[in-house]
Batch of 4 targets.
Target 1
Amino acid sequence: MAILLLALCSLPALAAPRIGVVTMQPGEIFFERFGHNAIVVDDPAGAGPISYNFGYFDMDEPGFFPRFIRGDMRYMLVALPLADDLAYYDEVGRGVAIQWLDLDPGSATALAAALAVNARPENARYRYDYFTDNCSTRVRDAIDRALGGALQRQLRPRSQGNTYRSEAVRLASPAWWMWLGFDLGLGPAADRPNSLWEDAFVPMRLAAALRDARRADGRPLVAEEVEILPHRIAPEPAGSARPWWPWLLAGSAIAVGLAWLGRRRPSTVAGLALPFWGTAGLASILMLFLWIFTEHCFAWANHNLLLLSPLCLGLLPGAWRIARGRDGGRTFRQLLWVVAGSAALAAFLAWLPALPQRNGHWIALLLPLHVAFAWALTPGGPNPADWRRGP
């Protein structure tokens, strides 16, 4: 009888599923740059390991692209056999590793049941956010709930100084247009130092955090880590600080050249200013759109609007007149110095300690250019009489 009772008591432990976090390394396509992850449930009573993947979306659903532009995307949780989930990563050469977690049988069983309910069609969809609610944060939150909040308590007080901007720019760096879009398009909200909890929006950061996490009894949370697929393409970009002084040297050198040329060939300088101001104006329209008309909250109140100002579009007619050998007009000369002054204001805001934006390199590059264009295209320098007379 005693042996029978012991056997019966051990059945729940034997039947408890194994829980793992599988992490996929970054790929070469732009939407794969941030890597990926999922939760694996290996139930002894099941047919094989199941991957619970929060990264699926349906481009054919009504209104997908308008919602994508507005920042109101809908992603979904999909449960599928782990082998099926890994087939694509094997094909494209992306490395995959799995961390088997040391969870109590009751916690593992409850997590598996919660994921199964979450994967039902009526529960699977969620509102996606690049930084705060994505495939990796959903994995993080599910593991944290299984641990009774212990993961968050360990990660929230610690930081490596990363920000949403630094991580986005780092991971997007192989594609120049992608890191450029992140760096110019993100506002000051993306520059607050993240805790390790917030860093976990990056799957590889979550894997590193799990590797160091501990259970309540002090044992490591990760019982075993296994490489499933080798990584056969370019590795994850390393983080590095971006010095501002090369940008300042480049901006200053170009500015000196513009100032020198402006006193001799102002029409040539105006011709160079036309594409610069046109590009700046179009970039500012996009930044304003993200701020005013979308829910991409990390793009709001972007200080780069002071460096790439919509006022640049107002300079185009005057620059065109000067390029054709005519006078730009008093309004044009006034607006030149307003644009230069707004760039100087961006430098002042970056110096303030309250919600600064890490755009010092852009200030170092663009502020000298705005001042140089203003000086080169204002004969004899700024004329205070223009301001008194008006246009």
Target 2
Amino acid sequence: MKSPASIKKATEWALPHWTRGQAGRETPQDLFRVLYFGWLVALTLKLLGSAWDVSWHFKWLRDDLAPPHLLNSAGTALALALTIIHGYTGYGVDKAALRLIQWGTGIFLVAVPLDLINHRVNGLDITSWSPSHIMLYAGTFFMIAGVIRGWFMGAPPGRERTVVLGAFFALFLENVHFPEQHQEYGILSIGAWDNQAIYAEPILLQFAADQMGRPVDRTMAVGFSLPVPDFLYPVYAVVAGLSVLVVARLLIGRFGGATLVAGAYVGFRTLIWPLLTFTGFPPSAVPFFLIVAGLMVDVAFLVRRPVARAVLGAAGVTAVAYGALVAQSAIMGSVYGALKGQEGLLGAPPLVTSSALWAGLGLLAAWLAVEWIAEKRKLRPIEAPAIATA
């Protein structure tokens, strides 16, 4: 706990900055760092809360005041405070970054009561892909996009600038990939069901069964655990998730940028896996394939021509991602089964390999759009030397 003297010192430092200003205002470097390290704390709290939240909902009946929700709410409260500070003072953001942050925070805050109403009316939300949940992800999407822009445009050159940008992109990737965790938890829950090792509490199973109008049986368990088409997981992962890695590599400007962003996210998921499972919460498949796909994104950027890079990269990255998913299903399933005494438990959600064509075309369209925007706006990597201006 901070002493009264340190609180007084912090207040004396902060109060002179609390003045009305327009976005794009020149920002002292110490204030800039405080604001963006505040964003790292806020988004990390949201990350921890959301990571716990999915596992929680595969075990317990939903509760508005569940610990994961409270942890997430603490991060949201800090994010709201930072949004207000940026908006009032104009410090740390240009107009575009501020609008993204404000719109994102606004969408998120509107989505929260809508999600609560949805649960009051419809009971248990069977999927993380529901409209109210998607609004929460969309709000966070714009919020973090604004934070990335603000840091990218205003941070001074140096290693810290690159590392923090990579951290923000890892948090961005987590938000984009978040709905996929339903299938990642769901596939192991079905494997556990088939091996008489049910993770969910009886009250949750009965509630889901009553909502579906079915007895507590395997069909109900599949409807709860894997409620979306099997093709959605790989297609969304390639089109949405890997597009994030393309943008990250483009703006970081170093070979390995995409791999490290993917590795940071997957590393976090790997670290929390034992923390959750050893405390009695359900396990999930971990998307290790993202690291291999991220490496392929880095390799694709060795091609200098943007259009050729997008075409060759989309084809190669899609092939590698699908191949890694197939391998992960086989290898990780065998390892997990050996550890748990449950042979055949899958290590990745069901994979429809015929969807690779559509995933590749979607990634190609997104990659070409990213290259076009980067060329039109003359975006330069964060590691590139600044262009001299008159």
Target 3
Amino acid sequence: MKQYTVAIVGATGAVGTQMLQCLEEQEFPVGELKLLASPRSAGKKVETPWGEVVIEAAAPECFDGVDIVLGAAEDDVAKALYPEAVRRGAVVVDNSHAFRLDEGVPLVVPEINAGDIASHHGIIANPNCATIIGLVPTWPLHQLAGVKRMIVSTYQAASGAGMPGMLELEAQIGAMGRGEEMPTPRAFAAQLASNLIPQIGGEKFEGFTSEEMKLQNEGRKIMHLPELRVNCTCVRVPVLRSHSESITLEFERDITLEQAREALAAAPGVKLVDDLEAESAHDRWPMPLDTSDQDLIYVGRVRRDISNPEALRGITFWCCGDQIRKGAATNAVQIAKLLTE
């Protein structure tokens, strides 16, 4: 089997660290590994399945001889470095927002549109975490009945703000438990512990935030549905990792609950957990605790949308998925594996 020189940009962050683990889990054919980060991390040594690797400060010359780049850096770093990586012969799978909506850059969820990878010109974009988690279970239902409208509320974990967000939530919970003064919020606009923050991202369109518009704009591109209508509200919740979403779909054609459940149970990347009468709560509905540290999107609470006047054309469900894994790192490594095949 051919082996590849792989570079991870943003290797010391939450997603970059998870990418390294996913490479091992998915038995990626790594011949040589390069870990790239900010200058303050340069020189640190990391033990990997492929030997000890010294972290380098990310710079254009780091991409010489690299076959595949996994990007876990911010937009500004992505825009500055990844075109350089492509010019030096690498293919980039980028987790930032920098190129997602660019024409000519495939935006890929392997369970949905793996074929789009073939049209890349050096950069393949990894979608937003909430987009991935919501669309993986939406796709099999769309194939049955043709989705035309989505109403979504997301309940997004602290992990969406990376390691700083998770550390901040842990520090706040610890301070509450010890009866100490609450640390000043830095990763979030307000205290997250014992609270909800109903804004993720800045205002983008008529009162909707940038995070809320991603589901519509990215969903249209991924599912090849330019007319898809999405109304989304994104909320930050005091959960460490694993995003949850409440999704209501309106379809072009009739779909029964039995058809919906059968499609979800058979869909790749999905686990149906939907039994309100089950003895254990873990078998009744998806929860962030159960979906963390694994790659499936759990789906439950599948029911009819009783507000839809077309009785057989509306389905509501609840889903949870690990934001760091399938919402980011796992999806990127899955794309990279497709490149090797």
Target 4
Amino acid sequence: MEIGVSSFAETTADPVTGEVMSHAQRLQEVVEEVVVADQVGLDVYGLGEHHRPDYAASAPAVVLAAAAARTQRIRLTSAVTVLSSDDPVRVFQDFATLDGLSGGRAEIIAGRGSFIESFPLFGQDLSDYDELFAENLELLLAVRASERVTWRGGHRPAIHDRGVYPRPVQDPLPVWIGVGGNPQSVVRAGTLGLPLAIAIIGGMPEQFGPLADLYRRAGEQAGHDPATLRVATHSHGFVADTTEQAVELQFPSYQHAMNVIGRDRGWHHYSRTSYEAGRSRRGALAVGSPEDVAEKILWQHQHLGIDRYMLHVSTGTMPHAEVLRAIELLGTKVAPIVRERLGE
């Protein structure tokens, strides 16, 4: 099983000082995180696309390209690309370029996104939310499948026998579908035979087991080899040398970040009680010692049969040195425990 890290390049206010770091500083920190993840043997680093002041990565492929020049083995993916408001041809070109620069390590996780700021920014109508994603995914896969493309849709200008370059090292360039729990999206991924990435940031991970089963059934009914129907999960968490240290370091920034988002979405105040429920054995948060986090990963593997696990280690602003230490522990302590228990 692959184990990796994801980030949104957060620049939320420090929960203690109230200071907000610059976007430039945070982007440089992200590149350092990828370098450390590569050095400690992690399999993948994912960077999300956002268009808000409290996130620095509106162009993940650019940031990952900077990291590609300083790494050797780790796979580099968006997490996610907001495909509904992006141009699919440009997305392909960006990640094909990243693929060439990295020697064949690029991936795309395409999703609808959890925020809507990109729609008005790029002139898209939210009433076309579902239709835009389906159409743009169709075009992205057409460009991936053929060097020259003829295509017509309802929102983007048609393409007639045009070449799209550069071509990636990998053939095909990996495209995953990222979902938050929408069954229709899960079925679409299975029917197309694309790997599935599920964001599990609340509730109990085993509740997502039926979605993983639905995905595999849809894929097999569409005639795809079950071995190619891969499932990844993404969860918030943090690793430190001891459980107490992990909780002390993460909770203030996590609470602050969740309440900032919660004010936008009408959520209830995120309390210490909510946090402790998430940290419980069956909760979605993977926070604690290496042994604690390994158990959380194995729990998801047991209930969802996952092939990849991505730990979002910096929800909110945290001391950079501690984030790097968490990534180090994920690679040197957590991953070996998981792989030994799985017999890998």
